[in-house]
Design a protein that fits this description.
mainly alpha, two-stranded antiparallel ribbon
């Protein structure tokens, strides 16, 4: 744990880069050249645009992580660039963080671990997706991939690499959070004041200055669609503020994309039934893993007592 604490920013950054490389870079590339997606110029241009957006925002996030890593080792460096930061896995920046106990508040400690948080997201976000399917009202729209592509390739490109849109939000909102944390430390005001300032400014930065402009021209003729977009980006901002974790926000975006795609391919009943089955399997697997770990911990305690 001491090694991770010292190099947390580097380790989290490396995991983020691996995830970006696989989900947002390799899978779309496979869809283009392995499932005939590249036969359409539109698909190639779309993926190229999101590759560019993803690479730029990943560089910005990396700079923020590097700045925070360097700031840990020198007060002078912190005074110079301590305001520069970004969120990858930063529970200490989250609204749920208990500063006195250096962990999340009771009842939310499970969400401090990225894998468990993603388990819960994989179960909960599809429920939101089903609600959108039933009401035929979605918080996102898709770029409408050209049809020459094979079905699996189409599914991949409808989900990624457009998920990289979330990286820009994470960088801007994370930067806003770090700036106000820097100001807080320099001026000595308490956490209540910090959050009173940070939450509304993060919503303005994430929704008004990023989310809505990013989609304005696509939805300019529909107030209802723009309202849905605003709701989506508001929820994304709040997820980031609550958990301080880029991966849960990224998952939220991809699941919304996936259900929008499924809605155009299958009936509501089919989507509901298969989603319910998958959620059930995931929940059972997670409970099974939890039971195995609990039994192992019990055996360790028994062995220790026997030894004593």
């Amino acid at each position: 744990m001491a090694f991770y604490d010292n190099f947390k920013h580097v380790i989290d950054w490396f995991i983020f880069i691996l995830a970006f490389g696989f989900f947002a870079f390799f899978l779309p590339l496979m869809a283009l050249f392995g499932f005939r997606g590249a036969e359409s110029a539109f698909n190639r241009e779309l993926v190229t645009f999101y590759y560019g957006l993803g690479i730029i925002t990943v560089i910005l996030i990396s700079v923020g992580e590097l700045a925070q890593f360097a700031s840990k080792f020198s007060p002078k460096i912190y005074n110079a660039i301590g305001w520069l930061g970004s969120i990858i896995h930063n529970p200490e920046m989250a609204l749920l963080w208990n500063k006195q106990k250096q962990r999340f508040f009771k009842g939310f400690r499970w969400s401090q671990k990225t894998l468990i948080l993603l388990w819960v997201g994989i179960i909960f976000f599809p429920i939101i997706g089903i609600f959108q399917v039933v009401n035929n009202t979605f918080l996102v729209d898709l770029p409408h991939i050209a049809q020459q592509i094979l079905p699996i390739g189409e599914a991949i490109l409808e989900v990624e690499p457009s998920g990289t849109e979330i990286f820009g939000l994470v960088f801007l909102v994370g930067l806003n959070m770090f700036i106000w944390r820097y100001v807080q430390k320099r001026n000595g005001f308490d956490d209540f004041i910090y959050w009173v300032i940070t939450i509304p400014t993060s919503i303005v930065v994430g929704v008004v200055f990023y989310g809505l402009p990013l989609h304005f021209f696509r939805y300019a003729g529909s107030d209802q669609s723009l309202f849905g977009v605003a709701i989506f980006w508001f929820l994304a901002v709040m997820l980031l503020i609550l958990f301080g974790n880029i991966f849960i926000v990224w998952l939220f975006k991809d699941v919304n994309n996936l259900f929008k795609f499924l809605n155009g391919k299958y009936s509501d009943d089919t989507i509901i039934v298969y989603t319910g089955i998958i959620i059930g399997i995931i929940a059972v697997v997670r409970i099974f893993i939890w039971l195995i770990r609990r039994e192992r911990n019990k055996k360790k305690i028994i062995n220790f007592l026997d030894f004593g």
